[in-house]
Amino acid sequence: MNIIKRLFRIGKAEAHSAIDSLENPIKMTEQGIREMKEQLDQSIHALAQVKALSIRRKNEKEALLNQSEDYQNKAMLLVQKGIKEEMPIEEADRLAKEALKKKEQSLQDAQIADNERQKLESDVDKMQVNINSLKSTISKWEGELKTLRARVQVSQATQDINKKMTQIDSDSTISMLEKMKDKVIQQEALADAYGHIANASKSIDQEINDAVNTSESRAENELLKLKEQFNNNSQ
Questions:
Q1: From CA 15, how far away is CA 3, in angstroms rounded?
Q2: 3-state secondary structure (DSSP) of residue 11
Q3: For the stretch 68-77, what's the b/e string if a residue is b when 16 or more beta carbons lie within 10 angstroms of its beta carbon?
Q4: CB–CB of 85/144 below 8 Å?
Q5: Which residues does 86 contact at the CB level (< 8 Å), separation at least 6?
């Protein structure tokens, strides 16, 4: 709670700077929510105690009013006994006066208890407003925390992907293509080398046969030409 209040007290630019300097914003937010929940528990406990006092003062007021009424009835009975000479008139009047004094004191105590009850009930209303506001704040920050977690996960995933893509483009892909190109060129050169070696390895007989085959082909062609010419002359 104190952390969040501190962030709201400082300026917007300073707030961004403070957030950037936090090692783990999620953990700091979680800690702030835990502190708010602890304060909520304490506030609810205090509210229950104040409500209990209010109820107690209300009960005391009612008891004192009943007590004052009882003293009023007793004073009336004492006066009646004095009138009926059931007891000495002086004694009856003395006790009746004492009963009326007790009645008046009970009424005064009942008024004091009622005033305290009203004050306590006013405090209860104020505390309930603060508790409701704190509950709303906790709910809001829990929602913000969920959003923050999701945004952190997305940003981390995006960062990892971009980093890998950068590494692939700058290092892996280009290096791999260059290596493959070199390997293809080397294989092509090796194939040419084997071809030269194969040609160089021909035997003399193969060379002779190649030459003879070439001469025979030429002779065959010449023969065909002569036959064709002879046939033309004969016609």
A1: 11
A2: coil
A3: beebbebbee
A4: no
A5: 80
Find the angle CA(145)-CA(151)-CA(153) to the nearest 5 degrees: 105
Can you tell me the distance from the alpha carbon of 105 to that of 71, in angstroms, rounded to the nearest whole number? 10
Nearest to 7 by CA among 52, 204, 16: 16
Which range among 11-15, 124-128, 132-136 shows the weakest confidence by mean pLDDT?
Answer: 11-15
pLDDT band at 49 (very low <50, low <70, confident <90, very high): very high
pLDDT of 114:
95
- Can you list the alpha helix ranges (DSSP code H) found in 1-24? 2-9, 12-21
85-104 pLDDT, tens digit per residue, is: 899 999 999 999 999 999 99
Estimate the share of the chain in helix, then strand, then coil, as percent rounded to the nearest 5: 95, 0, 5
Model confidence, pTM? 0.54
**Could you tell me if residue 88 is left (phi over 0), alpha (psi between -120 and 50 degrees) or otherwise beta?**
beta
| C-alpha span between 215 and 220 (Å, rounded) | 9
